[in-house]
Amino acid sequence: MKTTILTFTLFIFFYTAHSQTNPEITKIGIPIEMLFPEGKSKALILSYDDGRSEDRRLVKLMNQYKLIGTFHLNSNKLGLPNYLNKTEIKELFTGHEVSVHSANHPFLNTLSKIDIVYEIAEDRKELERLVNYPVRGMAYPFGNYNDFIVETIKGLGIEYARTVYDSYTFNIPENFLQWRPTMHQFSKAYYEPNKPENDKKELDLFYQTINTFIQTKDLALMDIWGHSYEMGSDESKWIETEKFFKMLANNPNIHYAKQIDIVDYINAFNNLKFSVDKNKVFNTSSLTIYFKKEGKTYSVLPGKMLIISN
Ligand SMILES: [Zn+2]
Question: How far apart are the C-alpha atoms of 245 and 181, rounded to whole Å?
């Protein structure tokens, strides 16, 4: 009997002491929210496909508004009529990202495994020769992909691959190899000729989505994609492009980024090593990482440990 009472008393004592004084237990489950570089809650990616000659005008406009683009190029098309030349790629896209779009722009779902490998590896190799850095991103030609294609591109050094399935959200992509962008530029306006009512509806949706992005206080990543040839020689569409560039430019709350930089940043955030109580964090990456914990913003330097004092 005495033993039972003693055991029970000890149990109560230890249980009470443990639950009251051990912060590791009470603090488990504190959420850590990622922030973009410089503690910003928003990031913008602008990505354009195909490397057509209108990219020259587009890049000039982007540079004017200090916007950063990601350009998905087909190396075997460069030099053809209405395409960029190989000799201008490095200089034109300085400060922007050059990325894979396959060597010849085929429907990848019609190809054998070895031909898919060729299309991706050959494009990577030639673009890397032109820009002189590792090319690690991709957009699927025609947005065309399936499980076989996704499995095949793994191991070819491709770290993200953008689809054309617009999400109309600002979510962080869960699967970088099936990256769903926020939306096509101008939404689906001008998809069919001579449908002014549809164009107006789609343009309204496009600008409404941009305004929501600008106003939100939540963590938000917006990825707008398109082709410079869609503007072509139509001045009204270039005016439309400049209009949305102007809306998004020079905003201190937005981090402007190459798509691959966002991938590297998210990977580095996901690789932070937190202690159980979330008060100590080690950053194994080469990037300064920002996060929010219990409403406060913290940054942890590359290769350093941060101790958060209470
Ligand atoms: Zn394309």
Answer: 17
Average pLDDT over residues 202-215: 97
Going from the Cα of 140 to the center of ligand 1, the distance in angstroms, rounded, reads 7
How far are the Cα atoms of 148, 219, 279 from residue 283, in angstroms, in the given order?
Answer: 35, 21, 13
- Centre of ligand 1 from the C-alpha of residue 50, in Å: 5
Residue 18 pLDDT grade (very low, low, confident, very high; cuts 50, 70, 90): very low
- Distance from residue 254's CA to the centre of ligand 1 (Å): 27
Mean confidence (pLDDT) of the chain: 92
- The rounded distance, in Å, linking the Cα atoms of 187 and 240 is 12
CA of 52 to the centre of ligand 1 (A): 10
pLDDT class of 19 with cuts at 50, 70, 90: very low
Residue 98 CA to ligand 1 center (angstroms) comes to: 14
Instruction: Give residue 111's pLDDT.
Output: 97
Q: What are phi and psi of 270, to 5 degrees?
A: -65, -20
* pLDDT at residue 147, rounded to an integer: 97
The closest of 221, 238, 220 to 229, measured between CA atoms, is 238
CA of 196 to the centre of ligand 1 (A): 25
**Residue 227, H or E segment:** none
Spell out the domains of the chain, with CATH numbers in brackets: 36-164+173-185+194-264 (3.20.20.370), 271-310 (no CATH)
Distance 104 CA to ligand 1 centre (A): 10
Bridge partner list, 160:
137
Taking the C-alpha atoms of residue 46 and residue 262, their distance in angstroms, rounded to an integer, is 12
